[in-house]
Write a structure and sequence with these properties.
Blueprint (H helix, E strand, L loop, with lengths): L3 H10 L10 E5 L5 E7 L2 E8 L4 E4 L1 H8 L20 E7 L12 E3 H6 E9 L4 E8 L5
Parallel strand pairs: 1-7
Antiparallel strand pairs: 1-4, 2-3, 2-5, 5-6, 7-8
């Protein structure tokens, strides 16, 4: 009989609807919609809108391949100059409020996507900002 804790680990490491490998499930645990903005430096590349209580699965490898220099296929992609230090990242934008200051908790790096199986986004009403909680991926997943 298989070990149930081992099975639940593997089930938690991958999305049951996709069998193409591990990704990171990002949950919106706030009461309003948020945007997951894929950016390279200050350039906005793609936006995923998450309604309250919904989630989105992202893979760091796919984002890296899609938005890094040298991978551009069209003229539109060549309009922007990329620096080697400009790596893609995810910016969590609160679509419900206007927060003018940038907070560290609103930034998700590709390393976070690689190392975490789940990221939950919460609203911190005391500080007036968004916070994230990360669940590390087990070493053997």
């Amino acid at each position: 009989m298989p070990n149930l804790s081992l099975i639940s680990c593997f089930n938690g490491c991958r999305d049951q609807t996709q069998v193409s490998g591990p990704g990171t499930r990002i949950w919106n645990c706030t009461e309003k919609a948020i945007e997951l903005q894929v950016r390279v430096g200050c350039i906005l590349k793609k936006v995923h809108t998450l309604k309250a209580g919904s989630s989105k699965r992202l893979k760091s490898k796919n984002i890296y391949k899609a938005y890094m220099p040298g991978k551009a296929k069209g003229v539109k992609d060549l309009l922007y100059y990329y620096d080697e230090t400009c790596h893609p990242y995810i910016w969590i934008h609160d679509a419900g409020c206007d927060f003018s200051r940038m907070l560290k908790q609103q930034y998700i790096s590709l390393e976070d996507l690689r190392d975490c199986s789940e990221i939950k986004v919460f609203r911190d009403h005391q500080r007036g900002c968004i916070t994230v909680r990360k669940k590390s991926r087990p070493d053997f997943c």
